[in-house]
Design brief:
473 residues, alpha/beta, Rossmann fold, 2 domains, 10-stranded mixed β-sheet, 6-stranded parallel β-sheet, globular, binds adenosine-5'-diphosphate, binds 6-O-phosphono-alpha-D-glucopyranose, Trehalose 6-phosphate synthase, Glyco_trans_20, alpha,alpha-trehalose-phosphate synthase (UDP-forming) activity
Length: 473
Amino acid sequence: MPSRTYDFVIAANRLPVDRVVRDDGTEEWQTSPGGLVTAMESVMRGRSAAWVGWAGIPDETPEPFTDDELLLVPVPLSLDEVTSYYEGYSNDSLWPIYHDVIVPATFRRSWAAAYEQVNERFAQQCAEVAAEGATVWVHDYQLQLVPALLRELRPDVRIGWFNHIPFPPVELFGQLPMRREILTGLLGADFLGFQRPADAENFLRACRRLLGARTKGDVVDVPHTDRRVRAASVPISIDAGGLRELAMSEPVQERAREIREQLGNPRTVLLGVDRLDYTKGIRHRLKAFEELLRDGRLSADDVCLVQVASPSRERVEAYRELREQVERTVGSVNGAYSPIGHTTVTYLHRSFPREEMAALYVAADVMLVTPLRDGMNLVAKEYVTCHDGPGALVLSEFTGAAGQLRQAFMTNPHDIGGLKQAIMDAIETPEKERARRMKALRNQVAKNDVQHWAETYLAALRAAPEKPAPTES
Ligand code: ADP
Ligand code: G6P
């Protein structure tokens, strides 16, 4: 691999594609799961740049390869590191802490050590591919030590970091045994981007409380150095133009009609699309739906719910338990309410191509986005972009998207009574009013798409303070 050649490098735990080994032993590359890849793949497509990340299977290091100008640089993880750095520290220590401790966090010193070791490897790989003076854009909670490690190796490069998930209040963040190392790791960057203003404020407060750092506005003076780092919110988005074009295409429109037919042409199709993650409020959503059927406010004769739940982190206990609970509830709702010939809840535990996802959004009358906490939630933005006419978005207040999609039917998913009412409002609001709200939502996302996000982020990174301004005499 040519070294020090790329002016633009991004690092994320995952590459945009995963190496997948099928049951028959054959292998293929598939799009990686999650919102980070959805957003970054459209930003990076066709750019001459390098993407440093894990290929999704342990103990394998495929050679770097180029995909449409983009060099993909696989970082190897051993099976032990997948368990300790990825499933352990990233997804069983950090993920619960950063999502309001919806499930308890587990701390193990061996996991923390693996996190440091893997972050070191990512930093080295970035240092290897970045050209003199390059921009390196690091992503998400799995790589929070990389900025400082990379600065040590390559003081010449400009370093940005963006957090795709929430940044927790200091009262929760402070539980992390590695809290100071993480803050110091992040402060190695020139600019830190967050989803919501509240996330950036939580970070700034943590720097003051836990590092004794001074802050002025959104800029932190890095203790024991003459460096300053800015932390601000730049909410992420989707490739609205590309997705809209796909959704409007005749094959997708035709498929949407077919989906409704296959569902038995109900009056109302409700839709949920999530990774099968306890942050997404899937259990709360199913409970509200079940109670609406039980109360007779909804009838299984003219309403159905399609729940797409893509497999996620299946070796982590909390995810395994969630899957069992969700599948049990789906079974019991269907047992109690499905008419002969149709299922009231269609549960799809697998990945679909973009075209099929777009057709589902077009087909759905009401989209249910009910996370207990979510950095942004791109599904909400995808739905309003794809759906034409009188749809409705039920949206949790605890998503980053709620800060922008103000015309949605807002809800607190912890309040099951309130959630039921929000679903009923979404169904019963007159068509004209629903169409008006959907249009406003669609325009909001079209104006603030992922290209706009990337430009705003990179402009902020270029403009970030390097050294304190000389004091005027
Ligand atoms: P997260 O990043 O937490 O998974 P987001 O809502 O921000 O949540 O992003 C999820 C992304 O994954 C969206 O682009 C969505 O379309 C996509 N997605 C979710 N489930 C599936 C699925 N079963 N098949 C294909 N894409 C999916
Ligand atoms: C969220 C995170 C990403 C992560 C994705 C999928 O979007 O912000 O960093 O890649 O979920 O999760 P996974 O653990 O499968 O990578």
